[in-house]
């Protein structure tokens, strides 16, 4: 036993006694075990808080449980290195590496804590009627995470270069200019996002029409907006372009308007034209979904090439598409039935040939020719 102890205390590895190497290993090992145990208890505490109706506290505990192993490992390395005998250059290098690891650990904790901020923002947004808050949540989450990453990179650069932050900024000036030029589309899309949030042309869930793409808005992100088209496809439009497009917000319409053009034949008597207009007005009178400020209208408005045109318009409130379709179907059936009962013929594109000798449509060509006198 004494021989083993002597070997441990007298043997050296890279200028350090063997016991110092063993101490480094033991400290790191116990640090990992402590981190595992502490993370486990934090995770259990988070689950219990969630079950007791304290989801925010549970989320905080659960979020902090994840980086515990990393934090314990970094602390173990920092304490373990202090037991070693190192030359100045190696000691400086080791100190810088441990400082970088501490920055990474803090940034990782902050990065994970963004989930807590996101949860709180979503909970606050759910209490408001507007869905604009829901659109802001992903943008805030992404902005916070990008900010944390940038700050962490700058701090690491400061540690490794052993220069103040202003010098690091100056060194990154040229590179930042090149990066800005390369990322001008990203910057354009970011400011497009700000324009969308400021103008509020739509909210999450609104059905919009942009460049022929018709569907509800599913997500407004840091760079682009996603629309689920009525065909089921996802269309991604950069916010920089979307901010300059004409957007039809179908989801915000207060009603659905329908224009009907019913054509009847030219040989329809005038009294039946009047009767057709009476039928249309009667069908649409006090109709389902009518608003007092938008009464239905019906007019005989055009002489088409092959028909007489009856124009009718009505508005359906509220803008329930399927309810509107069902009502329009009932209107169509009623118009068809009552026009047939009255003997009012619908017109369609036709050509009429007048034949000589037709008793219903006499041409009287011979009579007309007989009345003509030759000249001269």
How would you summarize what this structure contains?
The chain is α+β, with helices and mostly antiparallel strands and 376 residues long.
| Major sheet description | 5 strands, antiparallel
The ordered H/E elements are HEEHHHHHHHEEEEHEEHEEHH
Low-confidence stretches: 367-372
Strand content: 5-15%
What is the overall number of helices?
12
Total strands: the figure is 10
Summed over residues and divided by their number, the pLDDT gives a mean of 79
**Spatial strand sequence of the major β-sheet:** 6-5-4-3-7
- The 3D shape can be described as elongated
Describe this structure in words.
By secondary structure, the protein is an alpha+beta fold. The chain has 3 domains: 184 residues, no CATH class; 60 residues, SH3 type barrels (Roll); 90 residues, 2-Layer Sandwich (Alpha-Beta Plaits), CATH 3.30.70.100. Strands 6-5-4-3-7 form a 5-stranded antiparallel sheet. Helix 3 runs antiparallel to helix 5 and helix 4 runs antiparallel to helix 5. The chain is elongated, with a radius of gyration of 40 Å. About 2% of the residues have low confidence.
Please write out the topology.
Blueprint: H1 2-10, E1 12-13, E2 16-17, H2 18-51, H3 55-65, H4 68-81, H5 88-125, H6 132-161, H7 165-182, H8 184-199, E3 207-210, E4 213-220, E5 224-228, E6 234-238, H9 239-242, E7 248-249, E8 256-264, H10 270-284, E9 297-303, E10 308-316, H11 321-342, H12 365-370
Antiparallel strand pairs: 1-2, 3-4, 3-7, 4-5, 5-6, 8-10, 9-10
Helix pairs in contact: 2-3, 2-4, 3-5, 4-5, 5-6, 10-11
Describe this protein with a few key phrases.
376 residues, SH3 type barrels, Alpha-Beta Plaits, 5-stranded antiparallel beta sheet, 3-stranded antiparallel beta sheet, 10 strands
């Amino acid at each position: 036993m004494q021989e083993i102890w002597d070997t441990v205390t007298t043997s050296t590895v890279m200028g350090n006694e063997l016991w110092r190497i063993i101490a480094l290993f033991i400290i790191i090992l116990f640090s990992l075990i402590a981190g595992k145990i502490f993370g486990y208890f934090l995770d259990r505490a988070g689950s219990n808080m969630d079950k007791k109706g304290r989801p925010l506290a549970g989320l905080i505990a659960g979020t902090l449980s994840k980086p515990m192993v990393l934090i314990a490992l970094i602390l173990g390395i920092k304490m373990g290195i202090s037991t070693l005998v190192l030359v100045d250059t190696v000691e400086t290098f080791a100190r810088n590496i441990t400082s970088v690891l501490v920055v990474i650990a803090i940034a990782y904790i902050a990065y994970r804590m963004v989930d807590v901020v996101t949860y709180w923002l979503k909970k606050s947004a759910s209490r408001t009627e507007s869905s604009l808050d829901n659109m802001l949540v992903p943008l805030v989450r992404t902005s916070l995470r990008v900010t944390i990453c940038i700050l962490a990179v700058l701090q690491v650069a400061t540690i490794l270069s052993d220069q103040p932050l202003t010098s690091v900024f100056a060194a990154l000036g040229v590179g930042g200019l090149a990066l800005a030029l390369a990322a001008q589309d990203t910057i354009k899309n970011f400011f497009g996002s700000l324009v969308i949030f400021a103008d509020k042309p739509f909210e999450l869930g609104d059905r919009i029409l942009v460049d022929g793409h018709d569907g509800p808005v599913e997500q407004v992100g840091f760079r682009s907006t996603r629309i689920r088209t009525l065909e089921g496809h996802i269309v991604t439009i950069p916010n920089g372009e979307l901010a300059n497009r004409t957007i039809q917000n179908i989801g915000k319409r207060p009603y659905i308007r329908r224009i009907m053009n019913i054509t009847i034949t030219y040989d329809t008597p005038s009294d039946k034209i009047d009767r057709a207009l009476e039928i249309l007005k009667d069908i649409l009178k006090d109709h389902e979904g009518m608003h007092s400020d938008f009464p239905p209208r019906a007019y005989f408005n055009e002489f088409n090439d092959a028909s007489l045109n009856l124009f009718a318009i009505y508005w359906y409130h509220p803008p329930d598409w399927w309810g509107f379709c069902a009502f329009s179907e009932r209107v169509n059936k009623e118009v068809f039935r009552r026009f047939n009962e009255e003997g009012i013929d619908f017109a369609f594109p036709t050509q009429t040939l007048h034949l000589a000798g037709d008793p219903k449509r006499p041409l009287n060509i011979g009579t007309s020719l007989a009345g003509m006198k030759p000249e001269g």
